[in-house]
Amino acid sequence: MVLLRARLPLYTRVARAIHCRGSGACGTCAVRVEGPVSEPTPAELRRMRLPPHRPEKGLRLACQCSVLGDVTVTKYQGLWGQHVESSDEPPGSQAPTGGALGGVDPMRRAGEAGP
Known about the structure:
Elements: H1 2-5, H2 13-18, E1 30-34, H3 42-48, E2 60-61, E3 71-74, E4 95-97
């Protein structure tokens, strides 16, 4: 919800048209989250076991996470944000976010050039 409230992009153009509106069913908002967040929901656990996702990649569904402190969020390439292994993470590809929207910086997708 922090990213949505800050109007930061979670979806590619196609995914924006087909996403599940927060039910945890589509998997298009998959991101890497570093920092304190809630435990995965049952819906998130179910979805992340289905292709193209794999639990061992350590991604989370942004629509199912509650931020519990300062976190760093990385959105990877691909319709579902699943291309973790093909992404070269240049400096600035991650966005630190404050616990309750404080300190939210613009987020770039991993592998996307900066300004």
